Amino acid sequence: MIVIPTFRYNVDEMKSYHLGEFEEIVILTIGILNNEAYSVSIKDEIESRLPRTVSMGALHTALRRLEDKGYLRSYAGEPTQERAGRPKRYFEITAMGKKAMQYAKATRDGLWGAIPMTVWQSNLEGI
Length: 127
Hints:
Blueprint: H1 11-16, H2 21-33, H3 39-49, H4 56-68, E1 72-79, E2 87-93, H5 95-113, H6 117-120
Antiparallel strand pairs: 1-2
Helix pairs in contact: 2-3, 2-4, 3-4
């Protein structure tokens, strides 16, 4: 007998920690980059890891939204000559952002774990 784990989510928690797909990609990438997460490095890292193109407009919108939700904090780096004296804006994940990431992972893991083994045993040839 195969025991299939069940996963139930708390609707209030889901609303509190909801991340859209692109937001999740952005926040994960900021985690990967750690102390080097600024808009251009985030864009470049996403494009190097995933088969997708990221527009700066979409990225800035997601970064702003994640900051508004309290998942990210930004701060200005040192001004650089290559940027005409303007500082880079760096991003870091807040404690609430880490909680949202953990919730997203637990949600996905629970859903993946609920897929019956028979689904994986079917023939995937030709796909």
